[in-house]
């Protein structure tokens, strides 16, 4: 039988003895960060999971609402954006930030998701910004994470036009901007076609590795190609090798870049976001 030690009954009630210290307790001031975007943001295939897990303190509620296969069009059409606005409207937070990153699935070749680069895509972004502000949140536009396709040793930057539109909308509407596209392009180009393979969800095949060593990616992304199945409740994100989605090393690398940039553009988060 275990030995049971009886509890000590204090001579003075704790509520009386501890009264002075209890009066010094102050209410906390909490903030919230909501992540909105596609598979390069969502848990298990993007940078968002690592961001919420490793780059915020206990004084920030971090909600990752990224969903694979979505664009500025389909994220709204299915109702995901409405959920994000409801999350932003929850009372009691000192400030709420919504980080918004789209582009990969707005590109041509994805029926039900693709948007026109010159008109629809920037207009959709403007609407996200307006509605986030109307909900009392602070929108932050994030340029799309680069893909990692190489030809003759040079990174193929198929998302540059989409990043440019995000930057233009941010300037036009005076929205805080995280240029993840620029930092990720510079990082991946510096790593090169072989080292950047380590950022993927799975190890590459011998064929893919051999192609990378030649300087040109095997099966590289082509504009207009459908490369991703939208994640649903019955079809979660698959784990595979490609030049877009992120494994643990990639998520850690790019979530750090997002955190570092966020501290700069949102100084009030400086003590709550960890680079």
Automatic annotation (TrEMBL):
Keyword Hydrolase found: yes
Name of the molecule in the record: Rhamnogalacturonan acetylesterase
Annotated ranges, domain SGNH hydrolase-type esterase: 36-182
Organism placement in taxonomy: Bacteria, Pseudomonadati, Pseudomonadota, Alphaproteobacteria, Caulobacterales
Gene3D superfamilies noted in UniProt: SGNH hydrolase
Keyword Hydrolase recorded: yes
Record PANTHER family: PUTATIVE (AFU_ORTHOLOGUE AFUA_2G17250)-RELATED, RHAMNOGALACTURONAN ACETYLESTERASE
Protein keywords: Hydrolase
Assigned protein family: Belongs to the 'GDSL' lipolytic enzyme family.
Pfam families: Lipase_GDSL_2 (PF13472)
Matches recorded under SUPFAM superfamilies: SGNH hydrolase
């Amino acid at each position: 039988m275990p030995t049971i030690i009886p509890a000590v009954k204090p001579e003075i009630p704790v509520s009386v003895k501890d009264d002075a210290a209890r009066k010094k307790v102050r209410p906390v001031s909490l903030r919230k960060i909501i992540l909105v975007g596609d598979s390069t943001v969502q848990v298990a295939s993007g940078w968002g999971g690592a961001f919420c897990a490793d780059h915020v303190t206990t004084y920030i509620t971090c909600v990752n609402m990224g969903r694979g296969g979505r664009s500025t069009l389909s994220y709204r059409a299915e109702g995901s954006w409405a959920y994000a606005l409801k999350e932003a409207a929850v009372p009691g937070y000192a400030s709420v930030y919504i980080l918004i990153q789209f582009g990969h699935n707005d590109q041509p070749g994805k029926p039900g998701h693709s948007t026109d680069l010159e008109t629809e895509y920037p207009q959709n972004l403007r609407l996200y910004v307006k509605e986030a502000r109307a909900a009392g949140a602070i929108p932050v536009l994030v340029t799309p994470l680069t893909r990692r396709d190489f030809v003759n040793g040079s990174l193929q930057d198929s998302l540059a036009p989409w990043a440019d539109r995000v930057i233009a909308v941010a300037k036009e509407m005076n929205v805080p901007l995280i240029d993840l596209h620029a930092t990720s392009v510079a990082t991946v180009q510096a790593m090169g076609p072989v080292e950047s393979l380590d950022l993927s969800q799975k190890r590459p095949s011998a064929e893919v590795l051999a192609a990378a060593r030649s300087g040109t990616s095997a099966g590289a992304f082509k504009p207009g190609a459908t490369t991703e199945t939208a994640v649903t409740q019955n079809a979660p994100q698959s784990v595979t090798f490609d030049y877009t989605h992120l494994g643990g090393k990639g998520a850690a690398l790019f979530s750090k870049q997002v955190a570092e940039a966020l501290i700069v553009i949102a100084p009030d988060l400086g003590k709550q976001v960890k680079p």
